[in-house]
Amino acid sequence: MIGFIRGKLVTKTPPLLVLDVQGVGYEIEAPMTTFYNLPPMGETVHLHTHLVVREDAHILFGFSTEADRVMFRALIKVNGVGPKLALTILSGQSADEFHRCIQDNDTAALIRLPGVGKKTAERLIIEMRDKLPARDESSIDNTSSGQGSENQPRSNAKQEAISALCALGYKAQDASKMVQGIAQEDKSCEDIIRLALQGKAK
User: Fold this and answer.
1) Would the pLDDT of 138 be above 70?
2) Most buried of the four, 25, 100, 141, 165, by CB within 10 Å?
3) With bands split at pLDDT 50, 70 and 90, how would you rate the model's confidence at 133?
4) Are residues 25 and 51 in the same domain?
5) For position 113, which CATH number holds?
C-alpha cells in the first residue's frame, strides 16, 4: 500500500493530477477539495493516498488531508459506492456538509450529486450514520484557503471546468449550465468548479 506521495506538481486536469517523484510521473485522481488547495505548478505537493487495484488497472487516489482519505475509505465500504462515486461525493460536498446530510437524513441534498439516486442516498444515511469519522473542527471548510487561485488563469478555464465536471459524473449539458452564469474574469478552473458546485448544492 502506498501511504503518501510527495513530488513536484506538473499537471492538473481535474480530477487527474500528475506528480514528478524523482523523475517518475505518478497519475493521481483527487477530489476537488484537494485541487482547491494545490499550490502553483512546479511546487512540491504532499498527498495522502489510497491505491485501488483492479484487474485492468491500478488507480492511485490522493487527498490533501487525512480526514478526506478516511472519509473516502468509509464511503467505498458502503454497498453500491465505488471509488469514482466516492470521489464525486467528496468533490460535491465538504466533509461538514456531508456530516450534516447524514445526521439530518437529508436525502434531497445527496441526490443532487451525480450518480446518487434515492436508494443510494438512503443507503449512505443508514450505513454511514454510525461509521462517520470524527469531525476535525480545524479542517472544516478548508477549501476556502484559495491556494488554487494563485494559478495563472487560462482563457479556456471554463471549458476545462466543464470537462472536469463531466469527469466527476455530471452530464455535459448540465455541466455547461452550471458554469454558464459564472463570470470568468481572472478565475482559475478550480475557482469556477467550486462556484459551480456551490450553485448546484443550493
Assistant:
1) no
2) 165
3) low
4) yes
5) 1.10.150.20
Boundary (domain end) residue, out of 114, 139, 164:
139
Stated pTM of the model: 0.74
pLDDT at 31 over 50: yes
Q: Does residue 145 register a pLDDT over 50?
A: no
Antiparallel, parallel or unpaired: β 24-29 and 58-63: parallel
List the domain range (segments joined by +) for residue 129: 68-139
Would you state the pLDDT for residue 184?
65
- Count of structural domains within the chain: 3
Same domain? 75 vs 135: yes
Do strands 16-21 and 4-13 pair parallel, antiparallel, or not at all (unpaired)?
A: antiparallel
Give per-residue burial for 144-171: e unless 16+ CB within 10 Å, then b.
Answer: eeebbeebeeeeebbebbbbbbbbbbbe
